[in-house]
Amino acid sequence: MTGEPALRVRGIRKNFGDHVALDGVDLDVADGEVVTVIGPSGSGKSTLIRCVHQLETIDSGAIYLDDELLGHERHRGALRPLGTRRVAAQRSRMSMVFQQFHLIPHFTVLRNITEAPVRVHGRPRQEAEAEARELLERVGLADRADHYPRQLSGGQQQRVAIARAVAARPRVMLFDEPTSALDPELVDEVLAVMRQLAAEGMTMVVVTHEIAFAREVADRCVFMEAGRIVESGRPDDMFTNPRTTRLRSFLARHRDSLATPQEHVS
Amino acid sequence: MAGPLSLTERPTGPKTDDVALSRRRVRPWRVVAGTVLAVVAVLLVHFLVTNPRLEWDVVGEYLFDPSVLSGLGTTVWLAVAATVIGSVLGALLAAAQMSQFPPVRWAATLYIGVFRGIPPLVQLIFWFNLAYLVPRISLGIPFGPEFASWDANEVITPVTAAVIGLSLVESAYLAEIIRGGLLGVEQGQRDAARAMGFTPGQTFFRVVLPQAMRVIIPPGGSQFISVLKGTALVSVIAMADLLHSVQVVYNRTYEIVPMLIVACLWYLAVVTLFTIGQRWLERHFSRGHTTGGLTRRPKKTSHGVSV
């Protein structure tokens, strides 16, 4: 966790019509760091990582991945938007795991995982399939390779989605509330996979409602409200000793899930 | 022992009933409907068999007549050509309607409005008479030099007028069908494809279109059947389609009814065949969209592991 940050977010703003979704957000994510983002609904957490992955355009500010400006290039002394292929190439260096999984329904599980490595990164299909099977093994779904996503439970689909995201060998992995759409009894299997990734040194930005998980797995935690980062720091300091009243009241509302942080450790 | 109530335990108490032992209920309206249908069927068969004016021998004689078969061929290829050209144009129009650039949207909407709004018969006659409006068709830079030009009277034959007319009408209808299909694919699928680093082209052809096809195929199939029947219109511009070819015969022999029956039988045969093909396509594009036991057949992998 030393040296240049893998990801730098500088003063980004994003409006949806009259609604201010992001109101000047700065965030550095170091190599190998796990940053969790918490905050009430509508605070801009998801918008933040969707902007980082260029699924939304930003209105001002800048985002850098390994010192490369995302989405724009310098042209005759001014910035101009990149063409769609260049943007796609930049996106291929990060991965995103969605709340609703978004596996491709007409591809088998194996194909979902190999599609980006083969089509985007140009790896040989055989090699990609071998790696995909290894990843499926790691997320405990080796026997599901030839199933279609709809035949799996939500937790299984999300584990496949994580395997798909890892298969692209991303520089940074972004998680957009990965357990919010799951039945409570399926949450743990997904968190376990994410915990494993974090332990292996993956650089991760995790937007989550799982407060206990956010505390346990993070190197650093960020609390957002109304499109701004209100407080950030080491999770233990932040959770035991919140500096702002807004974080204090947010944590109070989630006291139940914090009271038993061991509950989710499986 | 009075333990906790178990669902698997046989309930005790007074004698219970078993619905499996019930008799069938008599449904009088079904009896009425069945009788009516049977009577109608008998009447119909009686009519078809006994009415001498149907002249079934003439039907048999001309059913495989070379001129009829050639007309059938024309009808089928015209419908296929109109559908293929219409699909390509329709896809472009659908894309145009979803463009971020308003003028492109307006143009597409106007195009669809015009070609859906004017009766196809009128459009066909119009295209057939294009030479009056535009005597020469030329290729070149607008208001600049001209590279080549043709006499419109030679270019616009019944065939080109029919292909152009039917394709344009088809493209307008198919554009709406394709647009509906594309809108039916959830935004998350596009997000996921883009998040994987897919280019817009890969996103469209690998992820969005295959899913849209599920929604496009059923109305698209109906549209094909509709244009297949719509080809009968080209007989007015003297193109030798199925209807025109039987008309040529009955204008000579006055065996109008049996010749129309020949045409009807062929239309029904082709439509039935394509409907079967459509079912197959629907099944193909619904793969992965059922939760049932529809797994891909087990495949031997390079590791020799059968999964």
UniProtKB/TrEMBL annotation, chain A:
Catalytic activity: a polar amino acid(out) + ATP + H2O = a polar amino acid(in) + ADP + phosphate + H(+)
Keywords: ATP-binding, Nucleotide-binding, Transport
UniProt entry tagged with the keyword ATP-binding: yes
Top-level EC class: translocase
The keyword Transport belongs to this UniProt entry's keyword annotation: yes
Positions of the ABC transporter domain: 7-251
Signal peptide: none
EC number: 7.4.2.1
GO molecular function, one term: ATP binding
The name this protein goes by in its record: ABC-type polar-amino-acid transporter
Protein species of origin: Streptomyces aurantiacus
TrEMBL record, chain B:
UniProt record, GO biological process: amino acid transport
GO cellular component, one term: ATP-binding cassette (ABC) transporter complex
Keywords associated with the record: Amino-acid transport, Cell membrane, Membrane, Transmembrane, Transmembrane helix, Transport
Membrane topology qualifier: Multi-pass membrane protein
Superkingdom in the source lineage: Bacteria
Transmembrane regions listed in the UniProt entry: 31-49, 69-96, 108-135, 256-277
GO molecular function, one term: transmembrane transporter activity
Coiled coil in keyword set: no
Cellular localisation: Cell membrane
SUPFAM superfamilies xref list: MetI-like
Domain ABC transmembrane type-1: 72-275
Keyword Membrane carried by entry: yes
Family the entry assigns: Belongs to the binding-protein-dependent transport system permease family.
NCBIfam families reported in the protein's UniProt record: HEQRo_perm_3TM
Protein name: ABC transporter permease
Origin species: Streptomyces aurantiacus
